[in-house]
Structure formats: structure tokens, C-alpha cells
Amino acid sequence: MKLFMLWDMEGVSGLFRREQTWHWEERSTDEDYKEGRELLVADINAASITALENGVDDLIICDTHGGGGNIIMDQMLKDDRITYVNPRGEYNGKFQWMPGLDEKVDGFLTMGHHSMYGTPNSFLPHSNFLTWRHVKFNGVEVGEMAIESTFAAYWGVPYVMAQGDNVAMAEAKRLFPWIVTAEVKQSVDYDRCKGPSPEEGRAITKDKLIETIAKIEKNEFKPYEPGLPLTITMDIEDQAMLKKLTADPRSSVNSEGLVEATVNSYADVLAWTGSNVGINIDPPN
After folding, report:
1. CATH code, domain carrying 77
2. What's the whole-model pTM score?
3. How far apart are CA 147 and CA 136, in angstroms?
């Protein structure tokens, strides 16, 4: 069995403070970020051990938070069955987002994730870029988990599991009712979470991951397919980014002043949003 785990940082076990993950802000110290990275590493390693002990023989780990670079490689589990990748890199001779994600993957997991922009009473909600607001797929508002899992859907890969706080997992259950969710903490407000110890959070994730693997074996999951053609609509705060997006011939500005485009492939969700904001995505043929 082959799994692709896409790891963000806001939703990992025991990470309760904004400063531990949004390290680029002045309020975050080196010690804050060190704590956050160590929590991320511990979560990834624990999930990796669980996967390998329960039938997974090919595991791809991708650190996507802030473009990657958060995991501490000399602390990561060493096993020939694990491949660590950057969120953007070469794969099969092409530059691809989430390299290694293809039709051979049996399950796509969004681990350590968060809720969409504007979600009330949630911890650090946003939808991919911090300047994107109210992203919609065919009129339905979505967040980062949906944006990412559409790329898995291009390959026909089932979306199988999410991990994060209670508000993010409620979003996952609403948009993707078939997936397994691991709720490892509870949101207090925009800046803080509370919940069980990191070890207890990892135990929750372990149980849910074992459940997920068993359901993959029974073919109980499906890809996230919001429907094609797919009209993407969003409000973008950053004017430079907006200018790049509207330069694409597929783009238009609707009557509400929101930028939108209609794509005919799930790979093009990222090809439209990504290639125009500096991420060179070469959609697969």
C-alpha cells in the first residue's frame, strides 16, 4: 500500500500557540519555532511508524507549511519505505506540485491541517495564501484541504484522512463526509488551541490511521471531485497577486469584483492559481 501524507503545521498535536507555527512574524521567537518544529517531527514520525506497522510499504511525506523546510531531517525516521519530498520539485522529468503523487498512490492524507479563511472560533484559519479570501469551487466555499485534494483527484487518488483541531475536522466532515478525521485539539480563538498532551494526540492519530488503512483495503474511500467544469472564485487582498491572476486569459472579474476562472481538469486548479503566483506547476499529461 502506498500513501501520500501532506503535512501542514497548524493542526499538529500539542501545538497550541500561534507563535509556534507562524514563525515569520515578529512575535515568534526562535524557541517558539523550535518547539513547533519538534512537535511536527514527533507527529510525522509517530504516524509513519503506525503506517509502516499496519501494511503500508511505500510512504511519501511532504512538508507543505510555508513552502516546506520545517521538518528537521536528522530527527526524521529513517526507513527505505519512506520518501521525504518538498512541496514543489521534479517528478518523472517534470516540475510538479506534490512530487510523487500519481495514480499509484492508494490514499491521500492532509495531516496537521486547519480550517478555511474566515471560519469563526478557529485556530489560524486561512485558505492556502494568507491573502486569499472566500475561495469557492462551483459556488461552494472551500479551504486548503479541498484545494490540495483536487490535485489528488486528478490522479484518481482517494482522499482518506485529515488531522487537525475540532473546527478544521468539522469542516472536513462537512465537505468530505467519507474520510476519517483525527481531532487532536480544540480551538480557543484565532491565536490559541487547547487539548490533550502531544502524546495523547498522537495516540488519537494512531487509532484513526489504523482505521483509515483498514478502510482503504476495503475500498471505502473516493477522490474529492467537486465537478467539472470547475469554476474557481476568490477574493484576493494582494493587488500584485491579483494582477498576475487576471493576466491569465482564463481569468475574469465577476459582478461582485471577485476574480474567477473555469477549468476543465482538476490539475488545472493549481495550474491556474499556482503558476500565476510564482509556483511553476507543469500539469501532468
Report:
1. 3.40.50.10780
2. 0.94
3. 10
How many whole angstroms separate alpha carbon 231 and alpha carbon 227? Answer: 9
- What cell numbers appear for 163 in the block? 488531522
What is the rounded radius of gyration, in angstroms, for the C-alpha atoms of the chain? 18
Is 95 a member of any domain? yes
Q: What is the mean pLDDT of the chain?
A: 92
Q: What total number of domains does the chain contain? A: 1
Residue 267 lies in a domain: no
Write out pLDDT tens, residues 116-144.
999 999 999 999 888 889 999 999 999 99
Q: Give a yes or no: residue 167 inside a domain.
A: yes
Distance CA 93, CA 39 (A): 34
Question: Is residue 187 a contact partner of residue 122, using CB atoms and an 8 Å limit?
Answer: yes
Show the domain range for 111.
2-129+139-217
Q: Is residue 198 part of a domain?
A: yes
Separation CA 105–CA 191 (nearest Å): 35
Question: All 3 cell numbers of residue 79?
Answer: 526507513
CA distances from 269 to 91, 262, 265 (A): 19, 9, 7
